[in-house]
Amino acid sequence: MSTDHDLQIPELHPIEDRDLDGVCRFLQANLNPKVSLEEWMRAYRHPWDPEKPNNGFMLRYQERIVGVFMAIYSRQTIRGHVEPFCNPNSWVVERDFRKYSNLLYRALLAQKAYHFFITTPNPVVAKIFSRSNFQYMPDQITVLPCVPLRWSSGRIIDNGRDFENFLDATSYQIFNDHRDIPWLHHVAAGSPEHYVYMIFKRVRLKRMNSIRILHVSNPDHFLDYRHLLAIHFFRRYFAITMQIDRRFLSQTPLVSLNRQDGQPKMYFSDHLGAADFGYIYSESTALDQ
């Protein structure tokens, strides 16, 4: 015998820009109240893909939002080719409607044109995505000391006004796309002909100041200038260490430690590898959490 509860079948809708106010209020109330409504809204209004099809999908029951699965879309240049990316994030459904959660999941993954990556899935979500052939990214983080182990030449650029004449078009576009996010920092080291550009956050590791690198334009150039960067980070931010995902590096520096990242990260693509998926253009940069 069916009950009223059994008949509560929500409707699936794409999340358009005009829906973001209500959707972000739902996220603040049901997922993370520490993130302000303004921050939630801003996370999904970056113009990272002018042709984005939606901001994810939502479930509505009697005009009320009862579940969402958000998505951040972007166009990124990988080895000279512009590729479409989708970063699913912030999946939350009210308890009475959780049996319909897969409607959101299937709707997102039905968009076959995209490379998918998720940077903060909980273990339950990671298990669900693994059933759809998502691959786990390597979970090793390399920790480097912010001490000058040897002399290194080159310039440090950390003033946004100087980046235009220092970075190539791809790196400058990445800088422009992320420059207004207040918790992100930007630095370049080297020369216009041979440089590394980085996006990072200031964090704590073992109760000490540390630099968490979220994007590195050229891993080999990062290794070339790591001593110059170490001096800069120590002097500017009193940082003791800098951290970078091991998958971004072609080799592990001798003076370094590897630690395991407890946060799983996953991707799905027909031709890109784990090193092609970073933290830029995702919830890991769009939200401060």
For the biggest sheet, the summary is: 7 strands, mixed
Strand content: 25-35%
* Terminal residue distance: 45 Å
Secondary-structure element order, N to C: EHHEEEHEHEEEHEEEHHEEEH
Q: Please, what is the CATH homologous superfamily of the largest domain?
A: Gcn5-related N-acetyltransferase (GNAT)
- Please state the structural category: alpha+beta
> What's the helix count?
8
Order of neighbouring strands in the sheet with most strands:
1-2-3-4-5-14-6
From the 3D structure, determine the CATH topology of the largest domain.
Answer: Aminopeptidase
Radius of gyration based on Cα positions? 21 Å
Low-confidence stretches: none
**What is the domain total for the residues?**
2
Tell me, what is the CATH class of the largest domain?
Alpha Beta
Shape: elongated
Count of extended strands: 14
Helix content: 10-25%
Second rung of CATH, namely the architecture of the largest domain: 3-Layer(aba) Sandwich
Question: Can you describe what's shown?
Answer:
There is one protein chain. The chain is an alpha+beta fold and 289 residues long. The chain is 23% helix and 32% strand. The chain is built from eight helices and 14 strands. A seven-stranded mixed sheet has the order 1-2-3-4-5-14-6. A seven-stranded mixed sheet has the order 8-9-10-11-12-7-13. The N and C termini lie far apart (45 Å). The mean pLDDT is 94.
